[in-house]
Amino acid sequence: MKFTTKQAEITQLSTDCLVVGVHEGKRLSAVAETLDGAAGGFIHAILKDGDIKGKPGDTLLLRQVPGLACQRLLLVGCGNDHEIEPNVYGKILTAAGAAMNAAGIKRAVNTLATLPVKGRDLAWKVTELVRNAEHQAYRFNRFKKDPQECALHEQAVYCADKSDVTAAKDAVAVGQAIGAGQSLARDLGNLPGNICTPSYLADEAKRIEKHYDAVKVKVLDKKDITELKMGSFLSVARGSHEEPRLITLQYNGGNKGDQPQVLVGKGVTFDSGGISLKPGPAMDEMKYDMCGAASVLGTIVAIAEMKLPINVVGVIPATENLPGGSATKPGDVVVSMSGQSIEILNTDAEGRLILCDALTYAARFKPARIIDIATLTGACVIALGKHASGLLGNDEALVDDLLEAGKLSGDRAWNLPLWTEYDEQLKSNFADIPNISGGRDAGTITAACFLSRFTKDYHWAHLDIAGTAWLDGAEKGATGRPVPLLVQYLRSRC
Ligand code: BES
Ligand code: MN
Ligand code: ZN
Known about the structure:
By secondary structure, this protein is α/β, with parallel strands linked by helices. The chain contains 15 helices and 21 strands.
């Protein structure tokens, strides 16, 4: 979508559609009040008659409003509060976009960033407006003969004041950068396992490298991974004909020598469970098991677009998890790069097996902090559903910063405990550590406890995105989360 900013006499604006807020209790937003003045009380009369109640998400599309130059006026309900809650603001934006798309509107001037939002400044509102619009305009058309495009393809963000324009322009660029990163993450998540293979992810990283001078990519193949003694990572790839890849992206936006933030993303391009085969229903969804990797790639794109002054390293272990004659079997013992031996009691707990070696590998980048992102456990979907990512870590300050970034971006996470009582559930009679604990209790936490055995030397946190990375039902598909959270976190580091 194309975005511009607009500062002009609002009643004189000629556009396909002008988008303005109205509140419950027949109250108009400041912009709507100005328009109503020129329209001789037309909008007030509509509210009085009850054609729109003003609840968040209500919309009413009007044509040829007297006294106004715009062709259409879209009234959008903004609720009762004088200061709108940030999450309600998102709902309002989405409702406005949906109404415009349903009406086939191509161009609009959007005044919703002039609404007061609790604790948020203009830049935040504009960035969120743009990111939300990009998210709504996203379509996955790659395999469709008749691609469906979103009607709306140009929006001007209206600024009430001339002095707002510069900040709004910058905020538009930020929203577009995050939107682009999130769309890339969605594309990769939506691509099927027969196309989005480990080498496809590596090629994608190389495409990113070509595009941005500040990004350097290194791809290691099976031979290199073997030389690194990543016995745990390799054990997952054994059942597959597709070879694994270890992908590293270095984004150098900061000073040389500044310790990087390291992001490690689970890149299982299809998770059948391996010999511990998953049940058939919804197994197709396991093509999304590389959404951690996708969020790392998306985040790197977003921060490279924004030219963020920071150093960031992305590490992606990429593999399939399939059964086969040489696949790893339950009971097999492997030795990880860290030297710790692992008894693989369930080959479906493969994410942690690839992440542990990637986390050990990451030491060479001397991370300031390290965050792994993974569709790691079904238990996380049970615990938190689709609203919050699971967040666990060994460093309180890091966990707090990630929680805050989640709140600010609307891409929320929720902290779960990493107590030693949980860690004690990980006991093996045959190796240093088993890859699963005895029972199903606290599956998200025991998975993180496993990872914590490999991150003792770091300020480390883990995001379990099994629930948040995709939606099912009518909206089935990748969400691009937690790109907004990660970008917000990295911006807060600058
Ligand atoms: N990729 C899955 C986790 C998952 C499940 C993500 C459902 C999204 C939706 C992971 O590799 C897995 O299979 N985990 C097992 C762990 C168990 C064997 C301890 C799980 O959650 O069932
Ligand atoms: Mn699995
Ligand atoms: Zn998995």
